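hey can u check if this looks right to u? its 182 residues, i copy pasted from the old doc so theres a chance i mangled smth
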Amino acid sequence: MHARTALLCSALALAATLACNRSAEETAPPAAVVNEALNLSLSAMPAPFDGVINEGETLELTTADGSGRVAFRVGPASQYPNLKEVAEQYGRAFEERPSGEYHGSLELGTHWGSAYYSRGSWQGEGARREETRIFALHPEATDRLLEVSYLYPAGEGQERVQQLFAVVAEVVVPEPVPAAEE
């Protein structure tokens, strides 16, 4: 009887260990994304994004279903942009697009300072499109503009803006790589 109990306990312990290991693998946090050319890093990739294009000065995230794309752009040094003016100017540009509408700009607080966003929609090729674009100072260089834009189907603004905010919350300056000891 004791041998059966010991065997049953061992089998249960092994099953529990395997279940714990499997759930740890399934819930492992996504790897950081580092773009040295833009001097930006995402500490994690939030849902619903699962695709990354990270080559040179191109850093883009895509949603699993392909309906949304986030793109990062960094302006040249020594520009000292006025974020409010940049957001308002970009907002007016929505109205110049086919059937374009400007949905407004708003000031935001980020973990590295103030930012603004503009949101608008227009008639694209075969479908109405919407974009929300955040304008901030680069986390490392206050003389450079950081733009983070999210393009998605029109009418999904409320949910998509929250997804964009989740992406911006993950933006950090990459840690310098320590020099190899000789």
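The chain has a mean pLDDT of 83.
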